[in-house]
Specification:
Layout lengths: L1 H8 L8 E3 L4 E5 L6 H4 L5 E7 L3 E3 L4 E6 L5 E5 L5 E6 L11 E3 L6 E2 L4 E5 L1 H6 L6 E5 L2 H4 E6 L2 E3 L4 E7 L2
Antiparallel strand pairs: 1-14, 2-3, 2-13, 3-11, 4-10, 5-6, 5-9, 6-7, 7-11, 8-10, 12-14
Pfam families: PTS_EIIA_1
Membrane topology: Multi-pass membrane protein
InterPro entries: Dup_hybrid_motif, PTS_EIIA_1_perm, PTS_EIIA_component
């Protein structure tokens, strides 16, 4: 009876549909990132951030679903079912993980704005690569209702928009 009472009258955890700046820097529209696979929208809707430092935080609240072996990308699933990928740099997979330190693992629960990684921007630049941070919702086509993101200068962990799923 007590469980039923809590279910009927207890507080339900409100899903966090916010999108957070994944790093200090300038948020830009996805079409402006240098990687054509992302800028074309083929990987899903999203945005880029030109970073001013290498301290990376979770762009959404949810469950960590994937950490690339080369540490350049981390995947999340939000409570609303949207699947989000953060991709650190363009062609950084070629660096075999060297500029990255990842502090999360699959199945970890994260809050939006929680520290998840560091990226050595100097090492990425020395390799002649673009250090843009790309965030995309990989299941946009089937599940995304609306993504709103405020462009411009933001601090890591700032709420910069929302990602709502289709009902």
């Amino acid at each position: 009876m007590n469980r039923m009472f809590k279910k009927l009258f207890g507080r339900h955890k409100e899903a966090d549909n916010h999108v957070y700046a994944p790093v200090n820097g300038t948020v830009v529209p996805l079409k402006e990132v240098s990687d054509p696979v992302f800028s074309s929208g083929v990987m899903g809707e999203g945005f880029g951030v030109q970073p001013s430092d290498g301290n990376i935080v979770a762009p959404v609240a949810g469950t960590v679903t994937m950490v690339a072996n080369t540490k350049h990308a981390v995947g999340f699933t939000m409570d609303n079912g949207l699947e989000v990928l953060i991709h650190m740099g363009v062609d950084t997979v070629d660096l075999k993980g060297a500029p990255f330190t990842i502090s999360v693992k699959p199945q970890d629960q994260v809050r939006g704005g929680q520290a998840i990684a560091t990226m050595d921007l100097d090492q990425v630049k020395a390799a002649g690569l673009d250090n843009v941070i790309i965030v995309v919702i990989t299941n946009s086509k089937d599940n995304l209702d609306q993504l709103t993101v405020a462009d411009g200068e933001h601090s890591a962990g700032d709420e910069i928009g929302t990602a709502t799923a289709k009902s």
